[in-house]
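Hey, can you fold this one?
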Amino acid sequence: MLKCKPFNPCTYFSSFVCTKLFCFMAKHLLFIFAGGGIGSLLRYFFSSSFNPLFARFPLGTFLSNTISSLIVGLIVGYLALKNVNQDFYRYFILAGVCGGFSTFSGFSNETFTLLKSDSYEFALLNVALNVLVCLMAIWAGMKVSSLL
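Sure. Predicted structure:
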């Protein structure tokens, strides 16, 4: 029987380098994994709670994208001003929570569904509001964080 060896990057590097690299990556991946789970649950809550309120506009996705953008602006602005350990903020909050909470695929699918149902004005409104309001939310978050 043919046995395949699993790829082991440590055979190409010293064990010290590999151990440090693995510990570094494992911590970041754990932060992203935990934050992403929280963000995904929040997105589900927002979509299931707010989308049914307006039959023709995906309010839950719009709110989750906007709030996530505001959080990104707050954190990025905060990190630019403070000398803090950035791992928790960058990996847990930005990549994890905000990455799981905001949803470009959901936004795209809902826009496509609006287009498919000939709701062109709501599809355009959805695109315009998500892009413009999310950009303004990041800007507002950065401005607020500069005041802290």
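Residues 30-147 form one domain. Let me know if you want another pass with a different chain boundary.
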